[in-house]
Structures
1.
Amino acid sequence: MVPLTVRSYYSLMWGTCSPQALCTAAGQRGYNRLALTDTDNLYGLWPFLKSCRRNGITPIIGAELTDPGQTHRAVSLVAYSLGITNVCPVKHNLYFERFLNPGRSDPPDIDIDFAWDERDNVLHSVLARYDGHAALVCNHVAFQPRMAIREAAKVYGLADTAGRIVAGRKAGPYRSIADFIERVRPDEREARALIFAGAFDGLYPQSSRAELLWELACRHKSGSNGPMQESLFSSGPDVPRPLFPPENELERRRHEFAALGFLCDRHPMELFADTLKNLQIVKAADLPGFVGKHVRIAGLLITGKVVHTKRGEPMEFLTFEDETGLVETTFFPQAYRRFCALLDHGRPFILYGRVQEEFGAVTLSVERVDRIGKVNA
């Protein structure tokens, strides 16, 4: 009797053992053949084949295909011919037509996707094993200055304004914020964002951003669409210029982060150091030393992926980042239902949960989430 439905930990939410552990257990039980049928992938193929050989077991290669659009390579004739799979697609009418397209002149290729946070480990392993016979190949896409501005502007919803910035710049460097507004005509929201981002700091190194915002507000209040005063702070006798307090550097950085989504010279989590200093926050780099314990971490939400349990309940794997590194977290169904509406990408949060280690990976099983500034002690 041969088990034909066997999943390793490459089948998310279905398997928990490595291919090596499965082969070792099968050998101890006297099996001379063993199948590996992970869901929608063949990631465990090579360790499975090596472990079968080491344990004197005949491997049976397969896969449970639930999404043909993502698994067509597994049923291709190329994979069968290379010995990657042992199911003949011709015999079972499992044609992968992209490799059979007569209009395709280049040879078949099979790419493999890796988790982004494991990429460096994979590269190191391949380069070490095939030393002198493996190399990195990449494409570099370079933007001309005009296109670079437009592409960056799309991200922040300023595509039309970026075009006007480029067009206005052809007439020569901007001499002042007044000159910029006359040539580009940004709306008030866009102008405020540019001020907060520090776009005009080079034109006014002795002035605070609060002064620039005041000048902008005066113009907006007057409803003027005519030329702006070339002398930035000469707004006329009816609008006396107030005395501005010294600029708070921390508040300045926070506005800059809100406008850009990043800081040019430091990690954004440094902005919240005073808020976090008495909360016993554990840094990402120190997390492996707290396995099995409950801790608090603080970080920016970087990315995430929603999956479903066997019962169909949603849960999520989320990645957070502080100034020392990344933290992989798990929001099991109960935590996911409670906090999913609270989480926004690029925002800082404090997480409380239990540190766990599985297969060498350290993660945090989250039990509570707080926005920074609204912390439950």
2.
Amino acid sequence: MDSFVLKALVNEIKSWCPGIIGKVVQPDWDTIWLKIKGKGNPWMALCTRYPLTGLYIRSETPPRVVFETPFSLTLAKNIVGGELTQITVNDFDRVVKVEIIPRKAGYRLQKHILIAELIGHRAGLFFVDDDNVIHQDSLMTLLELDKDIVGCVYKKRDGYGTTALKRWDDNYLQDNDCRKIFPTDAIGMGCTLIKREVLVAVRAHHNHPFEYLTQPRKLGEDVTFCERAKKLGHEVWAYNGLETGHIGFRNIIY
């Protein structure tokens, strides 16, 4: 499900607000169904299982429940009978927030927020420097390569060396590999795609994943991140197949 469809569905469900949560059903590990009392008594389904990741509006009853989990039981206990007051998604972030105010003995309690990360399988963060010239197909090409960390190779602003770096002892030197795509130890972030799971893994071990270090040796933020990711078992790749460079310089690599 793409971001445009998700945004349209969120806007449709907004028209149900305020609505009453009538039932919570979890037919499998990756899906939650919420019944909204109102016109037509529709169901809202949140699925995190690829390739079905997304938000769905259904009129039929969900599949027969074959199990109940602590999560679904706790969720039902806290929100059934509550009022659906708001549902939002941040632009194209694909993180849906559902706000529900529970009711107990006629009193409105503090609201609960159900957050669903409907990211999918091929989510990531695309880095582009504001002074770089990149090819129009850069993002789609890097997505198709399907690597943990992959960036386009281009010359540094001083014209000496490129952004692909190989580690020798405790130093990082220019990687002169001329292949179209090759594994390396670090890549500059001027035109680079990092998978979401890599970002999550590094963030779990470091409060500041991108960090300029001076001890025990000087490392830029991009090299620091790549080094930390590799220590966790992730791979870094460099790509030579797209025109990339700096604004105002004739040092484009292709």
3.
Amino acid sequence: MHNITTDLGSGIIEVEASGFWTLEHVESFLRDLEREARRVLATGKRHMLLCDFTRAAIQPQEVIAMLQRVAVTMPLKSRKVALYTEGKLARLQVKRIASVRDDMAVFDDRETALAWMLADSSVYLRSTHTSPAPKLRHPDGSRDPELRTPPLVILDSDSGQDVGRAIHLSTSSSRLSSTPARQ
């Protein structure tokens, strides 16, 4: 029902989940996961978790609820958790699990999930807009109808603190405006 492979060099613990899980199976899985996390920790790294739910059945609500609780309370938390599946219903369940932590994300395939995990910089960018991008101002205050990229918030990946603002322009433009974070 689960297969765990650990790469001590990268610190990635890869889980392949399959079939229908019970609460007892979740407990067994968690013991195995903790053992592997300790192995990674012994190398001086904090592990990252890559979970394949492609072959997993739709799980009972109590199993999903237990996985959500554990994602928040597990003593040896993963630095990042990438979950992936192709199934639409399974994806909804996986999204429920991932909704409890900011460092968990859901993907359609392994390659995208792995790329996200390995994009390991000290800062990451989050768009401040989900609606169509507004017209933005240049550093000199003038408006430009071609400048439609939304501002980005620069966040520290460890603390999640706002460390600045940036406006990313298309590659054809050489202008960039950034402002310091609010103190």
